[in-house]
Design brief:
27% strand; Alpha-Beta Plaits; eight-stranded antiparallel beta sheet; four-stranded antiparallel beta sheet; Umud Fragment, subunit A; alpha+beta; single chain
Length: 389
């Protein structure tokens, strides 16, 4: 056998066999998948709006780009998570998961922290059957950040005792009584984008108000649209119709929404438009726990911050069978609300959103498809490439 000057067989110097076209395509596809996965985890992800809780700011059928760079990408808790059972669980039909493969989370530095009025994508807090990073995504507006005290009076948000400047186009639900049901009214509802997604054509159906016996429409719309209808001769009355829910429905009277029957020992009787004052917990804050405020912090202590031996008994948080009288908050929390205030299940129902549940900031509507339009008018051209405020 002949050897080169470096004592290697000459056969080693022969040119490598060229890759087949199939292998080159496979390598390119694998590279693209890896790059797309990294971008989706660390930088930006696409979402679609499925419900009307953020109308009129975001519409059903809006396709969004959500920036994870603003708050910093967060490492997954469950890279090896697999479902152990598929049994039917209380409240929700979700698989049960083992905690054995969950990892601590770490958030990389971002451009900013969560700010008031940011439109935020996060994991729903109350799906306790799943680890946080495998829960359903929600999108709401952050109306109060850690350290704020929030109140709502007659539907208006107050922060730290002052009227808060809320972004977007908040909607209120009204009953609009009309003198006559005709196409003019329906056309006006359509032109002002007053939508009922339960109706085949998207236009609210005429009904009778059981309280007044008058005929008209239940509508959800921003204040400027409500002002327009009040000026129309066919409108007899326009009155607020939302905001009332059954007693002990809202947080913190319902201390553990959709998870357990824990209720506050000091019920407040708050409503959607008459809510608070409620302090939003801040990292490092020392809380003195009493029966009057324990329900506010129960989910934080028992679920979000992974403390052992936590139970709820007689309106108090207990640890290892003993009442817990003080607690130091381990992370920041946020209060989220939908812009469609009477048609949004949000922090008024299930409480605070932990910082480690937050995924990113919604920044751009890149496509919008009207579910009720015909084929030629399916795309809402005026919403394309619209920045979210």
């Amino acid at each position: 056998m002949l050897f080169s000057r470096f004592n290697r067989p000459l056969a080693d110097k022969l040119p490598a066999k060229p890759k087949s076209q199939t292998r080159e395509w496979a390598n390119s596809l694998l590279f693209a998948v890896v790059v797309a996965t990294l971008i989706r985890w660390s930088a930006v992800e696409a979402y679609v709006i499925p419900s009307e809780s953020m109308e009129h700011t975001l519409l059903v059928g809006d396709y969004l780009l959500v920036s994870k760079l603003h708050y910093g990408p967060i490492t997954p808790q469950t890279p090896l998570q697999v479902p152990l059972t598929h049994q039917t669980l209380p409240v929700l039909d979700l698989p049960s998961y083992s905690d054995l493969s969950q990892l601590p989370t770490y958030r990389f530095p971002g451009f900013s922290s969560v700010q008031r009025n940011d439109v935020v994508v996060f994991h729903v807090p109350h799906e306790q059957q799943r680890p946080a990073d495998l829960r359903t995504f929600l999108i709401k507006r952050c109306v109060a950040v850690a350290g704020d005290t929030l109140s709502i009076r007659q539907g208006q948000v107050f922060l730290n005792g002052r009227s808060g400047s809320i972004g977007g186009q908040p909607q209120t639900t009204y009953f609009m009584a009309v003198a006559h049901l005709n196409d003019e009214v329906r056309q006006a509802l359509h032109d002002h984008q007053v939508v009922d997604y339960t109706q085949p054509d998207g236009v609210p159906a005429a009904v009778t108000n059981p309280e007044t016996g008058k005929t008209g429409y239940y509508i959800s719309c921003p204040a400027d649209v409500a002002a327009f209808f009040r000026r129309q001769p066919y409108v007899q009355a326009l009155s607020v119709a939302g905001g009332q829910v059954p007693a002990n429905t809202l947080f913190p009277d319902a201390a553990d929404f959709h998870v357990s029957a824990a209720t506050s020992a000091a019920p407040r009787g708050w409503q959607l438009d008459e809510y608070g004052p409620l302090p939003v917990p801040k990292k490092g804050q020392l809380i003195k726990l009493t029966p009057a405020n324990a329900a506010v912090y129960y989910k934080i202590v028992a679920q979000y911050e992974h403390n052992a031996g936590i139970t709820w008994k007689e309106g108090m948080i207990q640890q290892n069978g003993q009442p817990l009288t003080q607690y130091t908050i381990k992370q920041n929390y946020y209060f989220m609300m939908g812009d469609n205030r009477h048609n949004s299940e949000d922090s008024r129902f299930w409480g605070f959103v932990p910082e480690d549940h937050i995924m990113g900031k919604a920044v751009l509507v890149w496509l919008s498809i009207d579910p009720h339009a015909d084929l030629l008018h399916k795309i809402r051209w005026d919403r394309l490439l619209r920045f979210i405020s």
